[in-house]
Amino acid sequence: MPKICNLTHVKSEKTVDRVLRQRLSPSERRRLVIVTGARQTGKTTLLKRTYPDLRYVNLDAFENREWTRDISSFDWAGRVGQAVIDEAQKEPSVFEKVKFAFDAGTLSFSVLSGSAQILLLSRVRETLAGRAFVYELWPLLFCELAAAVRGVPLAPPFCARIATCENLGALFSSLPSSLPPEEAHALDQVQEHLLTWGGMPELLRLDDEDRRQWLRSYEITYLERDLGDLARLSDLAPFKKFQRIAALRSGGMLSYSELSKDAGVSSETARRYLEYLRISYQMFMLSPYHVNLTSQVVKTPKIYWSDVGLLRQVSGQFRTTTGALFETFVVSELKKWASTSGSELRLFYYRTRSGLEADLLIETEKGLIGIEIKSHERVDRSDASGLRRIAEAAGTKWQGGMVAYPGSRLFPLCEPEIWAVPASRLLA
């Protein structure tokens, strides 16, 4: 494992404010709210803090499933009322009853939450189409944990500013090249924790030995519960092997033929397994930029694991932080921020068949921002060679570029408006 990190000021997820909490609708509005996400990302804690006056019903409990099953649609508003229904997909009739009460005007607000995205959202599409606002909760974001460690109110991270800025160079020039030692240390702690253990909230209160055991247990629970709900596989061994191989390819190009060959499964099975990982929030895909700037572009997506701690557990990469792992960390943080906040940041990667590439190409209303991600502590203008060529091809669309790295100094690398930016400052 990388060097040990202890977040001395943060002992529990209850001390961490969440970005999604700022977006959730107040219960005074006429609205149905859907919250999904992987197991153990903090949905229950978030919803209880956000809606303390609402009845909380957890359908993981058999008795609660029986109770809701026996309530008629006509009686739902009177007997249940405005409530947070957790693990709602465990009792399918709940969706129909909530819909009936909402359409009848007897129920004005309710929250439905669940971990199994395909089970939850399929019923949302069928039953609550046009009525529900859907939100996703991911593991702890860098900015959430950084605010808690620094003891400051939660605010949008620096990356949020690039979506609306007119001149990236002017924005960077207005910032100090280095942070005060205490603030820099706090961000280093956050980065080390997320790079080592990932963002599952439960890990905050544990020591390192228990964190490792928790991740092992999570992997088993995922296979037995979430995957069981999604796929009901009679033999988990082929999937476990596929999962590990897919995790080892995080940050790489998606190739179903290679995945199926290495895992010893058919191409059709590889596609199905990868979809299970996606809809259960274990991984996501990053699409290639759709505009041909220079030569013929590659159209194959890249795959990334959503949480670095779970990636380490599944892949067995405990001792070192590889370039691909650091890239996964940065890309996943930006992806999760954009998803959680509803940001206008549109994330792509760029690669041509001739080999020109950028790890990230962000499309904003103002133009294009290129990001190259490097895992070494020092960077120079040679690390921006691909960005310079892409900038030339993009012409007036180019807003500027960054080489994101694990160092501490923010400084200009080269024209046109390409800067070295510490990943911790980009994400905090």
Provide structural commentary:
By secondary structure, the chain is an alpha/beta fold. It folds into two domains: 19-136, 3-Layer(aba) Sandwich (Rossmann fold), CATH 3.40.50.300; 143-427, no CATH class. It is 40% helix and 17% strand. The protein has helices at residues 43-50, 62-70, 76-79, 93-104, 117-127, 142-150, 168-173, 181-196, 208-230, 237-248, 256-263, 267-279, 308-315, 323-341, 385-394, 423-427, and strands at residues 31-36, 55-58, 83-86, 109-114, 132-136, 252-253, 283-286, 302-305, 346-351, 357-363, 368-373, 398-405, 411-414, 418-422. Strand 9 and strand 10 (357-363) form a beta hairpin. Helix 11 packs across helix 12 (267-279). It is globular. The protein starts with 30 loop residues before the first strand and ends with a helix. The mean pLDDT is 91.
Radius of gyration over C-alpha positions, nearest whole angstrom:
22 Å
Read across the widest sheet, the strand sequence of neighbours is 9-10-11-12-14-13
Q: Mind summarizing the main beta sheet?
A: 6 strands, mixed
Question: Helix fraction?
Answer: 40-55%
* Helical/strand content category: alpha/beta
How many separate structural domains?
2
Number of helices: 16
Uncertain runs with pLDDT below 50, 5 residues or more? Answer: none
Please write the string of helix (H) and strand (E) elements.
EHEHHEHEHEHHHHHEHHEEHHEEEHEEEH
Work out the strand percent.
15-25%
Average pLDDT confidence is 91
**Between the first and last Cα atoms, what is the distance in angstroms?**
24 Å
DSSP summary, beta strand count:
14
Which geometry do the CA atoms define? globular
